[in-house]
Queue: 2 jobs
Job 1
Amino acid sequence: MEFITVQEAIEKGKGKVHLRGWVYRERKSNAFAFIVLRDRTSIIQCVVKKEKVSPKLWEQAESVLIESAVELSGTLKEDKRAPTGFEVEVDDFKLVHKAERFPITKDQSTEDLLDKRHLWIRSRELTTVWKVKAEVLKACRDYFATKGYFEVTPPIITGSSCEGGSTLFHIDYFGEDAFLSQSAQLYLEAMIFSLEKVWALTPSFRAEPSKTNRHLTEYWHLEGEEAWMDFEGLVEFEQGLITAICQHVAKHCREELKLLGRDYRDIEKIKAPFPRITYTEAIKMLHKDGIDIPWGKDLRTIEEEALVKHYDKPLWVTGYPKEIKAFYMKDDPDDPRVVKCCDVLAPEGFGEIIGSSERETDVNILIEKLKKAGEKIEHYDWYLDLRRYGSVPHSGFGLGIERVVRWICKLDSIRDAIPFPRTIKRSTP
Ligand code: 4AD
Ligand code: MG
């Protein structure tokens, strides 16, 4: 007989089944051993009755501890008291690996659980997050494919900074200075001159000095760049992407979202068009709400939270002051104080999920901006060449995958949106 998954067994509902997985829970008495079996799909209660099996088999069943690996066969029957509504009466049982006493018990501190992360990633909640994350990634890939984008592979080790020096991780590269990439953007910009529409999913690194529930020092960055695309095209592309992700997840992850305490309808209603305001309008709204922030200052978490309270969909905030944005963003010809950029803020206070802009195409303006930012021009020589040989209007964006997963899965911390979180205090396991 072939193994089937626990979910397939639940759907089958009756008859003989052959299952394998790990012991999720166990409870034993003199006559019975109850084993809740877990696999990638679900959990199911299994019962071994002493009187029905051989002494050798009983001895094995009786000795299992949580997270032991087992294979078993038995007969399914409905049982309303069992956690997923069915029970398997076991007639054959093989202990593939008898686990030691599992080091994770109830009521462990967050730090203890992070120390045991390599084991805790099997928990039902985290397993569910990984499933949703895989669907988020699938939706992104599918979206780029429908838009005719090419997936490309930019470098991680770089010599130039994309997002400013303060969050750069420095590495000693055979005695030379190099950095871990903060963003693939500059390389994607280079690649549009061959492929026009490109995207990449890469780890990005930020030496974030603070401990928050929305910052990782290593996160997965989804970035796209398109030649000939103007600012309005960019906003439309992003709206389509967020819609595609939410519609896909709401359709394919209903059970997962429920298990995580997220009503799938919260996600299903996320469809374009989305609300859109300028930074200047945002400042006015904040003043109306009694928040005292001068024009020109970047929005912090508290300001973002106050803004998104007015909406139940992601919010597109455009036209930030150029002093607080990166050198590569294009000046707005209609308002010299601001750039043609756009941040997307997730609803419910989950924070910025996308940073994006139309790019500056003029080599002299770029040089001026780099100088103003205190950057060494020679580090950007190669990038400036892109404005010397066939410069064209173009735009692009970066989306933080874990930010999106945290929002969709309604997670307290971004740490639970990535299997092995790297934060200011943690680079292991
Ligand atoms: O806004 P950021 O810094 O923009 C860029 O890096 C651009 N070069 C992207 C581009 O246009 N190609 O970062 C983009 C997104 C943010 O909106 C946020 O979602 C995520 O990356 N992000 C982080 N996610 C987790 N931990 C951090 N420390 C993050 N920093 C940024
Ligand atoms: Mg940003």
Job 2
Amino acid sequence: MDAEPRIVSLELGARSYDIVIGGGLLARSGELIVHSLGKAQCAIVTDVNVAGFHLDALLDGLGDACPRRGVITLRPGEATKSFAELATLCQGLLELGIERGDLVIAFGGGVVGDIAGFAASILRRGVRCVQIPASLLAQVDSSVGGKTGINTPQGKNLIGSFTQPRLVLADSDVLKTLPERQFRAGYAEIVKYGLLGDVEFFSWLEKSWRDIFSGGPARAQAIEKCCRAKAAIVAEDERETGRRALLNLGHTFGHALEAYAGYSDRLLHGEAIAIGMALAFEFSNELGLCGGPDAGRAIAHLKAAGLPTEIGQIPGGAPDVDELLALIAQDKKVQAGVAAFILVRGIGEAFIERGVDMEKLQDFLVRKASGK
Ligand code: GLY
């Protein structure tokens, strides 16, 4: 018998929704959807890996909550978040007869959640979306908060919308089939919450990360903690006009590295974010903003958990720094041509810096790209 699920509410007035966290949720998905949203026709968008392990369990769990169901199965991997795949997905949803009152169920990791959430947000000018995240990264971050989108050669997630899901069901059992590399990459986003604003949580992670990896009680605790932190930030700043940008700690560097790696398996999103967070701490230290011991402690924990922390760890050679700087200049946080960086004064003390000296940044990246 599964323990009662943990419920985190994201408060956004009429658009508020619950994030339900716990074991056995696929089996209860129909009941949970009907409780929040009533019965509806639905289309499930998933990827071949998740479908292979868990689609039957979801279909069983939905029961008659979603009477006319269609399934669209995408290729796994960041390259799926493209205009071409979005067009095919939208047409597929229309061919399934998905109407305004119906549901799109995004059942997968961050890639599926982002592209299916975006398709739902533009299909017939907006169809309701339920997120059923199937990776650690999606459970602690991308399924919550309403960011949806696709990538372009110019950069990551540059096309998209803020459209909140109506319900998030984070079933911890689904993580049992997640490849270890994917789990580790998702852990980088958990560490991010400690590093950006909660030194106590970071200290707890230093003690508890092995239990999180092995599926002990700390795992659900960590997922809940991250969802609560994110829900509080999104409730305050849904459209990222201020504090929500802190959730991008490591992302300005990380997104540029992902684009450089061609959104491929060479570098998973969470791995790029781990390197990006290490760079944010090192750069903050070089600028005299953050003490060396805090930077060293942050990087030591990422390394202990087996995450990459250096540009040179990206397989296939170091990127060209001019190319990285051009990608950074395309970041979504750019205003009047000036990129914003999330820098740190210490562990748990991230802040938004719009006045970064680009020459210092270039010098820093040249050294980092050459392994110094
Ligand atoms: N992943 C960062 C955010 O949702 O704002």
